[in-house]
Write a structure and sequence with these properties.
Layout (H helix, E strand, L loop, with lengths): L3 E3 L7 H10 L6 E3 L13 H13 L6 E3 L11 H18 L5 E5 L9 H16 L5 E6 L12 H11 L4 E6 H6 L8 H11 L5 E6 L1 E2 L10 E2 L8 H9 L8 E3 L5 H14 L2
Parallel strand pairs: 1-10, 2-3, 3-4, 4-5, 5-6, 6-7, 7-10
Antiparallel strand pairs: 8-9
Helix pairs in contact: 3-4, 4-5
């Protein structure tokens, strides 16, 4: 059994998300910790969190993959905005402690002309401070497509952040659309890409996957998700991913352009590929 799920709305709370996940055949899921296009977060609900922790155990869920707001840029050139973003990161990790043992995924950021080295340094500084309390959550750097001044489009950039932070609480979430668009050929050489990731970063740091087909050709650096099997990756690629022994036990989150009925169909499709 693989851990397969999708992004769910957090508006109804954690217990509601778990019930929704069960209704569509998911045994993991992702959710935004706050407004994905802003910074506002829902009030905390300790009772809901406690009930959710018990429900996750009872239903044998894999780790959840919470997602930071898209607007969070730890390496923006504006020092005030950068400080605010770092405070949002720290607050999100504190809030995630109510759901211990799960993941917090974020886009590393865009250096907006400051240069990759400066951007990585700023991300490292923010992560170090946010991780100081050692909350029971692992932070995941999401692999990016490398468009514009994005940080994280190459495995070496992810490794530089991990080395700079120097903590076991930092891992990686590989996004299939992003790495394809970023130049890693998972269609024709999945084994080679995983070997390259292991050489540069280490497979022990690979903690989650985002499963997305791509509207774009290889190495396009554009980042446009497509439904499973409807893009340039194709069904055979996802069948190899679902059954790859090195990826067993890693939560796989769909971020395709779908509503719940579409996600339910994709989850069933991926489960039908399991061998």
């Amino acid at each position: 059994m693989r851990y397969i799920g999708c992004h769910l709305s957090a508006s109804g709370g954690n217990v509601a998300m778990i019930k929704t996940a069960l209704s569509i055949g998911a045994n993991t899921f992702a959710f935004f910790t706050r407004n994905p296009r802003g910074s506002k977060a829902k009030p905390e609900d300790p009772a809901d969190c406690a009930a959710a922790v018990e429900m996750l155990k009872q239903n044998n869920f894999g780790p959840l993959v919470a997602h930071a707001a898209y607007t969070m840029n730890l390496c923006t050139a504006d020092p005030d905005a950068r400080a605010f973003t770092a405070s949002v990161l720290a607050d999100d990790l504190r809030r995630m402690a109510a759901l211990p043992g799960n993941f917090y995924n974020f886009h590393p950021g865009s250096h907006v002309g400051q240069g990759m080295e400066t951007g990585i340094s700023q991300i490292v500084d923010a992560l170090k401070k946010a991780l100081e309390p050692q909350y029971p959550v692992t932070v995941l750097l999401e692999s990016m497509a490398g468009k514009g001044s994005e940080v994280g489009g190459r495995f070496e950039e992810l490794r530089a952040i991990i080395d700079g932070v120097g903590s076991d609480q930092v891992g990686v979430c590989l996004d299939t659309c992003h790495i394809w668009d970023g130049g890693y050929d998972i269609v024709n050489d999945l084994d080679g890409v995983l070997a390259e990731f292991d050489r540069v970063v280490g497979l022990d740091r690979l903690r989650a996957l985002h499963l997305n087909d791509s509207k774009n050709v290889h190495n396009s650096h554009k980042d446009r998700h497509e439904c499973i099997g409807d893009g340039n990756l194709g069904l055979a690629t996802f069948e190899r991913i679902i059954n790859h022994p090195l990826l067993a036990g890693i939560p796989m989150i769909l971020e395709t352009p779908n509503e719940l009925p579409g996600y339910q169909k994709e989850i069933a499709l991926l489960r039908s590929m399991e061998k």
